[in-house]
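Re-running HTH CENPB-type domain-containing protein to confirm reproducibility after the cluster update. Everything else is unchanged from the original entry.
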Amino acid sequence: MPREYTRKTTWGKASLEEMEKAAAEVKAGQKSLRDFKDKNIDKSSLQRFIKKKERKGKYAKRILTDKMEEDLTKHLKELAGWFHGLNPLKCRQLAFEYANKNNIPVPDNWTMNQCAGESWFASFRAHRRLSFRTPEATSLGRATAFNRTTVGEFFDNLAAVTYR
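Result of re-run:
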């Protein structure tokens, strides 16, 4: 005959309303985390609930819209096509300038540093699937030599050499 399982913890037994009410009381300083044991609210569960609630409010705010991020991405790719790639810091500064020109409210740390935050940049880079590296210098002769005529000549010479 199988044994009966008896639960030893109270994790997950409290309703969402009870958890929010308890979190509000703890935040207000009326009670401590351990004062809710009689209501089947575990101290560590309540602590995790409060941390998640605080974190959600901090990171949920969106600075630039999808259209603006798309325009910024297009501009960055255009600059890279002109042999003028930007390093991550310059890209963050460009995002800050773009937000200021469009009168978008930005977080205080953006204004203080005169550039977008590192967490915003990491999210932007991952979301847009961009890769930023420190650009290497390209000589003017090399940049201007790469055109349709010279590339055509190269492939004509290549074909002449390989088909002999």
